[in-house]
Amino acid sequence: MSKHRSRITLLSPSPRALEIISWTNPPGASALGYIQRGDDQGRLLRLASGALVIQLPGGSIGTLDQRKAQAMLDAADAA
Which long-range contacts (CB under 8 A, 24 or more apart) does 45-54 make? Predict the structure, then answer.
């Protein structure tokens, strides 16, 4: 059974979850939490431009559906 590729799930907003892997922050980016999208898990970053992206453990950056990522953050804030 495969995971739904377009669903974005906040696994942990805590800073401790962000310490699991030695990350290198892109300039001007801030880490917001640890997420899962399909089979990928990584950090949710807000870039200096305001875009929300996923950073995989190897350091590569992947795009996210901005509306879904923001909706996930808004739901987490409301909880």
Answer: none
